[in-house]
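Worked problem 6 (solution included).
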Amino acid sequence: MNNKIYFANLDALRSIAAILVLVSHILSEYLSKYFSDEIWFTNPVTQFFFVNGGFGVQIFFSLSGFLITYLLLSEIKEKGKFNLRNFYIRRVLRIWPVYFMVVGFVFIVYQGIKTLLHIDSIIYESPLMSVLFLSNYDLIRILSTEGMYANGMLSLTWSVSIEEQFYLFWPFVFLLVGIHRIKYAIIGIIAVSVFFILWGHNDMEMLYHHTVSNLLFLGAGALLAYLQIYEHKSLKWFVNISKSQWTSIFLIFLILLIFAKEPLFAYEYGHITYFILKAVFLFFLLLMLTYKVNRPIEFSKATILLKMAKYTYGLYMYHRIAGFILSVIVFKAMRFTQGIYLDLIVVLMQFLLAFLLAFLSYKYIEQPILKYKDKFSVFHK
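Solution. The predicted structure is:
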């Protein structure tokens, strides 16, 4: 029986990405309400670490691009081909249950609660676009239309939709171009993404949520997977880099990401450079965490991050539902008045409730379903 492919460092990185998203989403509204923008939103350091959920999502994309491509290439290397049916079954079993629970909650349960409690709120999202995993395009439509606003609980599904779109077409690219030309396809999608970002440089909301612009991050992960599976000679140079040199590379990228954003965004095409900078950083970060190099840090030694990893999908999908539940209980049912200290307590409770929902979801919904997923896997424990 084949050994399961597992990268412990990437599980820890997935947890870090989830923390970036949760801190940004849960804290940003509270911070903007009670504190000066100069402290949190215009300061580059606090902005990067506390109001940077978008980067967390881009980490998720790079992880997906790497892992999916690595699994497909490994199966081809092992079996001579990959099983398309089993690939899709695995993706459905992992993504669909939680995704459709959230969609169902918003379009069915939330509608009932809204009527019962006389909540004045309109859902502009299309149920059909959500069901078809096209919610990122629906969100672009809403954000670009004056007078419309996104439903916070449902808007999170935009990134899952992009990943599902990638899972849908990426195996067919393998079948279409063949394994010997897949490297050109990977380079091609990265190039198309860069040109698309260049073309749409005046619309950051569109670029942030569009599938094609995010192929840059998915493609960066896919490229690394290809280079590793086929032991490309370009990787040999990285094996000889010392731990101190890796530390220097990491810190240089981190400093650039923190402090170069504002100067770059001052120029018309500067954000393109920043997009590429983030993709290159994630390429090297994944390389450092997965390849046989002298990495200066093992994320996998952070036990709490490893344990948290299996709950990250639920944390991402449920944390705004947790916020809604608390707002209904505290401010509607119990009729408390908002204030800096009570709001802080609600924020802390939202973190706790999000973890509780993610834990219950994993234990009673995701884990039982994932047992069936192993039946369709090539690589087992």
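Discussion: The radius of gyration is 21 Å.
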